[in-house]
Every structure is written in structure tokens, then in C-alpha cells.
Amino acid sequence: MFLFVATTAGSFLYNITTKDKEFKQNLDSLGCERNCCVATDCIPECNFIIGRTDAVYCYTPEGRGPCYAIEGKKKLLQISRTYLVVVAEDRKPGGGEENSITSLTLTVLDLQNKFLVYTAPVREVQAVLSEWGYFLVLTEGNNLLALAEKDVQSKLSMLFKKNLYDVAIRIAKSQQYDAEGLSDIFRQYGDHLYSKGDHSGAIEQYIKTIDTLEPSYIIRKFLDSQLIEYLTTYLQALHKYGLAGEDHTTLLINCYSKLNRTDKLREFVLTKDRDLDFDVDTAIKVCRQVSSADALTLALKHRRHDWYVKIQLEDKQEYKKVLEYISELPFHDAEANMKKYGPLLLKEAPQETTDFLKKLCSNYKPKGEPLIDPREFDGSRLEENRANPEEFIHLFLENPDMLIQFLEHSIQVDPHESNLVYNTLVEQYLQVWEAGDMEEKRQLGQKVIMLLQNPDANYDRAQTLILCQLHHFSDGLLYLYEDSKMYQHMMRYYASSRDYEGLLACCRKFGGQEPTLWVQALNACSKDSGAPAHVLSEILLVIEKDRLLPPLLVIDALASSSATLGDVRSYLLGVLKGEEEMTKQEQALIEKYSAETRAIRQQINAIETSNVIFRANLCNACNQHLEMPSIHFLCQHSFHQHCFQSCSESDHECPVCLPNNKKIMDIIKSQEQSRSLHESFHSQLERAQDGFSLVADYFGRGLFNNPVTTATSPGVIQKKIIESAKDNIASEARLRLMEGSSGATTQSASVTDRYESWSYSDAQSVPLAVKSVSSARRSPQPIVLSVPKNPFDESPEYDDAKNPFAEDEVAVEAAPKESTPQKASVKSINPFEDEDDDYDKNLNPFGED
């Protein structure tokens, strides 16, 4: 803490913060009158103010500070904020010192902005006070004057009128004006200086407006050739602030060029260790107009690879240097430059450019980098830098030889290259093959065939086939036909080229897979009068052997050809001989079917007119001896009742015959439905207005489909029906043992050891239904019989003739057609029973009720 002291003899400073003793320092040997010193802490350079006759002095703990030339004997000093009020005597000469006129002047000084803000004469001042933002001056006669501070805008307006722009700027800064407000003051100040011809001062003020004022406002003022130097100064500042655009950079470099300041230009664009305050691309473009070497240096310094390559190619034609430079670039930059400048480089340096593209489409590493990355030793997996060959194919449009080298290298590096790469390589092979000599054709033909045979080759077969056709490359065309199983196309090719040996070889090789090839060969030979006779003979021999074509169609095909009768004599003889043998076979088959038909009819007649004897002792389901109750069918199949109930799908069908009968009935039904559907289709087609819609509708319903069945022809269906009818030619009969209220015969358990015989006389009765073959669709009724097991059958010494319980054959007779259904009756044959015996059955406890 400091204490300032002023006396009439001097000014002193005491440091009262020390504990031992006070420290005194002489600030000045001159002092001041009473009330002529004040202290303040609002102004850093004015902590203590003393008013003397010649001026007002300011002091700080370090010593004397600034002073203000306010003359006159000081009567009073008062300070408030940054304003200092000075009351001083002002003597005007009047004929000697005693006769001079004395007046008082009140001056207000702005210490912060260092200028006088108010001056006025006053009467004798008794006191000056600062309160409520006013200076209150008490004068003689107890008059009180109040001095109020004007607002900032009024102050600035007054200063602008007086052209005191420097003062206005200080006031605006002290009042914390924003950047836009200050910029407007700087602009007015610069305009004022520009109008006075002070261009240097004006450009200094304009530079201060860079952040807010549009640069074009200043640039238009200094476009005169005599003012280029000042414009250069402004543009340099604009770049320094980083607000220059492309046009500004161009203008600045042009200014350097017009002023012939190449050193400044190089310093501006090439100086190292400085912040980049300009647009590099624009600088390179402008420098290129002045000096290509400087432009290259600038592009190389700032790693503008595109500009460097462009200048080297267009201005210096250094193609190999460009390739060396690109080979040092990172992968993405090298790839971009090759895509852009590849056509020119391939034109001027084809081999070097192709070699570099090979490296770029392999695992690319820039020149100068180690072949093995140190990160690979850490086990980290690095991404492979490899360009896509597809993106460079268009560069080789005028150089097919280099393109072939490039594509061959690509498929060696990656055999699974894209479809486009392989297709392009095949196309280039064929183009060169077509235009080359015999040796080149032989070598390139081998390459094409090897490529087509490569299983890893990812070429488009359809496109390759078209290319082979366009360039007339027969080897590749035939290979693709064979590999794609396009044998018909192979035949057309051989026929069009009249290569009958190849035609015959193709038929021999692939005729087993596609027999129609022989027919196509016959058509080809019939249309060409120059077909060899042995070729035609072999074709006809195979057609006759495999029956590929009816003889009439063969004769019709050969009728329009130049073939003679001697050429087809062997074929015709073979056909006639075969037809004769077939006729004999069919005649034998007719006789066989006729005999079978007669046998079936006889069997039907026997069923209708005589009894059917069931001799089966074994069940067809479990293969065990039959036991009562049992079920017999007219097809001579017999079952236990429980076996029949467990394995049958229907109570009216024999389980053994049911699958075959069902298959035959389905075939017949399918044929009837198909016939009905075709008849309906033709009927509707005759009346339809839109026949195409009707055909499409029936096509969707499967009318034109060829069902894949083993019995589609009428002859096969008839054969199956006849064979099935031999096993099941009549309807079945049924006799149920227990039917409750239906009236069926119930066999009592007490007669299971008695001989039983069954006879039926009505074929349409409920127990037995006999039907003809024509009524096979109706469901037959099974015969239910109770056949007891004879315990004496197993004794070899037993005389069956003496056994009263021996079973006679069970006979079933056909009942009269007009009779009504009757119950099956069981007739007991008892040897102990006599008609004349007076035996009373009612007294027998074991008799039947």
C-alpha cells in the first residue's frame, strides 16, 4: 500500500506496507498549492495527479507519468471516474502584471482518451462535487452549476463533424463498442484520409475493417495502376487474416507480377515455416502463367499431386518422370491420377504405364516403402491395396496388345476375377486372332481354348458364344456348343459348313443323349445334293434301328433330295422286314388276347350259371388256417373276419384285389375325364370370341400337359384291364354271421363242431351278389362263413369216411333272379337222427332252441 503526499516543496511517496519502517521516495522536487492534487485508481498510468501552473502532471509508484498542457495557476482539482476537473486562473495581459485581467476557466479532461471534453469560464469557484453522474460546481454567490455527460452517439457525431476520428475511435473502444460499430468508424476514417490523398493512412484504416467490411469496397478504390502498391498491402493483410478467396489470391499474385516483385511472389508462395494464408490451387494456377518451375515447386511443397502431374504432362511432357512420381504416391492418390491421366500416359509411354498398372492392380506399395510392413510382425492383418482392373480397361482402347498383357496379369494375380475382365480378354484375343497371320492365329487360338476350358474362368458363356460367331472362331464355337449341350446348334454349324464327317461324328457322340440329332442330320443331308452316300446310309441305319422316325416321313424327307433308290434300298428292305415281323407279333398278341377273353367269358358264364366252390383253408392276410367266422370273396381270396376288419379299407372290396382294381378304375376314369375335357374345349373354342384367352385358360388347367404314366395308350390300358379281370372278373358275395335285426344268419356256438353246408340260388340276394364284368364298378358283398376247425384232421390213423363230423364242400348256388333276398340257412346232418325215431327234441337239454 502506497501513500502519495504533495507539499509546496515537493511530492513524495510512502510505502506503508513494510513492518520495520516506512519507506519514503521523492517523486518530484516540485509541489503544488492546496486543493491542487487528487488520487485515483481508475487510470493505470495516473495514480496521483498534481496541478501546477504550466501543466497537470501524473504520477505512479514508479515515477512521473504523462502530463497535460493546461496553463494557468491551478485553483482546484477534482476527479470522477476518468474525468478530471481543473479550475485555473487565466490572465490576460493588460499593461503590466498588476493591470492584467484575471478570470477563471473550468476545464474537464478525459484522462482515458487524453483530450479536453469541456472548457468554460466561470466565476469564483468554491467547490466542485461529483454526484449522480454530474459535476456540481458551487460558484460565487452560492450558484450551483451542473455538468452532465452526453451520450456516446452524440459525442461521436460531434467528433465526426470535427474530423477527430482518432478520438472517436478511442471513445468507442472505451465504451466497449462492438466490432461492427468500430469497423464503421474505421471505414469513415479511411474514407476521410483517402479523400485527403493520404492513401497509406487510408489503407491502414481499411485493413482494420477486414473482418466486417466487404473487400470489394476497398479493392475498387485502389484498382488504379498508381495505387497497386497500396492494394497489394491490403491483399496481403486479407490473406493474413485467412479471408481471401480465389479471386483475391489471383489478384495479389498479379499485383506481384505487375510490380515485378518476383522475390515477394516466391516469398508469398514458397516461404517455409509460415501459416498457409492463401488458396494453394489458385496460387499454382497463377504461378503457372508466370513460371512453370515455381508452380511445380509450389505443387510439390503442398503435395498437390494433381497439379504437379498436370504441369509435368502439359507443360514439360515429362511422361516417365510423372510415372516415377505417381509410383511414390499413396495408393488412393496413385489410383486417382492413373484414372485421370492414364490415356495420355499409355499413348506416350505404353509399356511403362502398363507395368505400373500391373503393380497398381496387385498388392501395391509406394516406391521407397519397405516391402514388408513392420506391423505384420505384430500379427496385425493389413488391408491389401489393390485396384480394380475393370476401372482401367477403357484406358487401353487404342492399344489392344497392352490390354492383353494387363488382363493376363490380372487373372494370374486373381483367378476369380470379374466377368467383365474375362469377357474383355476373350474379345481382345479374338480381335487380334482375326487380324493376325497363321502363327498368331495358332497361338491365340490355343490361348482362347485354354481359357474357355479353365474351370475357374468367370466368363459369360452367352457373350463369348456371340464373340466366337462374330469373329468366326470355329474351335471356340464348337467347344461352347458342346460344353453347353447345345447339340442342335452343333449340327446346324456342321450342316452350314457342309462338314458331313463332323456332322456324323457329332451324331455318334451325342446321339445317345439326344436321338433327334440323327433326324436333324437326315434333314441336312436331304437338303444338300453333295452329301456323301455312306453318311446317308449310316443315318438311315440308326433311324431304322432305333425307330426314330416313321418310314413315310423318311421317304418324304428324301423325296426332295438327290438320293437314289440304291442309297435307300437297304433302309427300305429293313423297314419292310421289320413291319412284317411286327405284324406277326401283333397277330399273335391278338390271338392271345382273344383266347384270354374267351376264357374270361366262360368264367363269367360259369359264375352266373353254376356254384362257386371255396376251397381255401388259409387266410390271405395272416396265412393261418381259417376258423369260423370267415369271409370268402368270389376272387377265391378268404380271410378271418377279424383279419378282414383290420386290413380292409372297405367292407365291400377284397383287400388283395383292391389296389389293382383301383388303379385300373382310376385310369379309365382319367381317360373319360380327359376325353370329356377335350370335347368341351373344342366345343367352346368353336363358339369363343377370344380363342387365345380360352386356350390360355385350358393351358393353365393342364389340358396340354403330357402326363408321365406307364399306361397312357389305349392298348396298354386294355391290356391292364384284361389282366386285372382275370383275377377279379365278378362281384363278390358276402355272408355275415351276426347282423342282429337285419335278418342275417347267426351261427350258434353250439354247432361249431357240426358239419355245415351252404348253398345259394339267387345271385342278387343279400348274402351273395354275382355281377358281370361290365358292372365291376358296383361294390360286391363279401360272404361270411363260419368254418369250424376239425380236430381229427391232424390224426394220420383216423378214417375220414367214418367221421360223422367230416366237412363236405360248401356250395354256393345262385338264387333265382326274381326271388327276394333270403337268409342263409344251415342244414345239420346228424347220423343219429332218424325220421321214424320217436325221439323228442324237447326233452334234450342240449338241443337247439
Structure description:
It is found in: Late endosome membrane. The chain is an alpha+beta fold. The protein is built from 29 helices and 19 strands. Strands 4-5-6-7 form a 4-stranded antiparallel sheet, with no helix packed on it. Strand 8 and strand 9 (83-92) form a beta hairpin. Helix 1 packs antiparallel against helix 2, helix 16 runs antiparallel to helix 17 (438-453) and helix 17 (438-453) runs parallel beside helix 19 (474-483). The radius of gyration is 65 Å and the shape is elongated. It starts with a strand and ends in a 37-residue tail after the last strand.
**What oligomeric arrangement do these chains adopt?**
single chain
Average pLDDT reading: 76
* Spatial arrangement of strands, main beta sheet: 4-5-6-7
Low-confidence stretches: 707-798, 806-836
Structural class: alpha+beta
Largest sheet: 4 strands, antiparallel
Q: Assign a percent range to the helix content.
A: 40-55%
What is the CA–CA distance across the termini?
152 Å
> What share of the residues does DSSP label as strand, in percent?
5-15%
InterPro entries: CHCR_PEP5_VPS11, Clathrin_H-chain/VPS_repeat, PEP5_VPS11_N, VPS11, VPS11_C, Znf_RING, Znf_RING/FYVE/PHD
CHCR repeats: 206-354
Membrane topology: Peripheral membrane protein
GO molecular function: protein-macromolecule adaptor activity; zinc ion binding
